[in-house]
Task: inverse folding
């Protein structure tokens, strides 16, 4: 049998993106400039948010959101343990304490009921993560936040294009943070964005993402601008570049097409894997539109690590999302978390496998992966 080579993820860059990057290089605008402004406008338009601020990663987007909301020492921030390093790390970076709330075993998203129990007088914000591209229960989360005067910073690294009650992710929380990292649903190589309906907060975020300087570089250096600037705050070097934005503008135009391809492939997986008793396929919240950044299955009994090894021998790349944050050495040592603290996150982690899924995959590839799964589990 010929060995297949199916990675678990692969970005889709087409001719338009390549041309746009070359044009930008020829334009002389290498750092933040008119393309970044154009990209921000398209993100705001696409999500329906009033403001979009482009930055160099989703990590930077969440870090700046916490800073702009004055969250720091002595404060607590509620999030899920079932996420990537960034979500927890940014809380620690501002000097606040991460308070984990366990996930639901159906959606793998933070449990909105358990959030209520975790709130203390020190709680300042909630960071829900839309795991795999499936929106959290935003209605319940926003109600809890309003009742307790908390900010909500959405980690939407997986969820650009996703919808909750027919409204795009990007307009629910105080801020929403997107990632355009190479593996995400659209990419600028590295990159991110913050959306918010709060104009004042948006102004603060714009200043903080570039040294705390009162004017953007493109204004300072353009013919209309001047040499004069003021440092209003102690900001960061978190800006996006025009080379990235040029890529992003074209990727965003294709997002709905990419999403439909992802959803179609997920449907084929659902159909094929329904026949496999050992596999639990991902559930879809009927109130939301899942954009399948990941296609996470759970194995009921078969050893997860052995399964990934066997798939790899067949040339099929699988991955695991995520090792719960409370099981990592830093979080154990710093905050005293231990195994057993978040049973649902651990239960999902021990069984989870992310199958190959990206827009360029063909229907036949999905059927083939499903067939390999059946053989491996036999
Ligand atoms: C990828 C990812 C991030 C970080 O995104 P960057 O743009 O690489 O900083 C944050 N949260 C989750 C859940 C992610 O998967």
Result:
């Amino acid at each position: 049998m010929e060995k297949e080579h199916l990675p678990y993820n692969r970005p889709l860059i087409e001719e338009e993106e390549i041309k746009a990057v070359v044009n930008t290089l020829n334009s002389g605008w290498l750092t933040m400039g008119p393309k970044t402004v154009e990209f921000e406008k398209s993100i705001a338009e696409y999500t329906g948010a009033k403001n979009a601020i482009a930055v160099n990663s989703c990590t930077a987007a969440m870090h700046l959101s916490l800073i702009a909301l004055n969250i720091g020492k002595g404060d607590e921030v509620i999030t899920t343990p079932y996420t990537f390093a960034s979500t927890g790390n940014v809380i620690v970076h501002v000097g606040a304490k991460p308070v984990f709330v366990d996930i639901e075993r159906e959606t793998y998203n933070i449990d909105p009921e358990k959030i209520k129990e975790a709130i203390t007088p020190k709680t300042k914000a909630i960071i829900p993560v839309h795991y795999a591209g499936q929106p959290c229960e935003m209605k319940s989360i926003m109600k809890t936040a309003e009742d307790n005067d908390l900010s909500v910073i959405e980690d939407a690294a997986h969820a650009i294009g996703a919808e909750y009650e027919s409204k795009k992710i990007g307009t629910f929380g105080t801020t929403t943070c997107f990632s355009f990292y190479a593996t995400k649903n659209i990419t600028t190589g590295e990159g991110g964005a913050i959306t918010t309906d709060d104009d004042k907060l948006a102004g603060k975020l714009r200043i903080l993402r570039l040294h705390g300087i009162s004017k953007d570089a493109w204004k300072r250096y353009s013919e209309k601008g001047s040499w004069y600037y003021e440092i209003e705050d102690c900001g960061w070097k978190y800006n996006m570049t025009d080379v990235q934005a040029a890529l992003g503008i074209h990727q965003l135009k294709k997002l709905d097409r990419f999403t439909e391809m992802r959803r179609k492939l997920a449907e084929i997986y659902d159909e094929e894997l329904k026949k496999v008793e050992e596999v639990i396929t991902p559930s879809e919240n009927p109130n939301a539109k899942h954009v399948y950044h990941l296609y996470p299955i759970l194995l009921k009994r078969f050893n997860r690590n052995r399964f990934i090894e066997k798939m790899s021998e067949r040339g099929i790349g699988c991955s695991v999302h995520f090792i719960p944050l409370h099981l990592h050495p830093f979080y154990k040592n710093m905050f005293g978390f231990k195994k057993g603290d978040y049973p649902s996150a651990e239960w999902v982690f021990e069984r989870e496998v992310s199958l190959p899924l990206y827009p360029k995959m063909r229907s036949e590839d999905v059927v083939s992966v499903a067939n390999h799964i059946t053989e491996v589990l036999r």
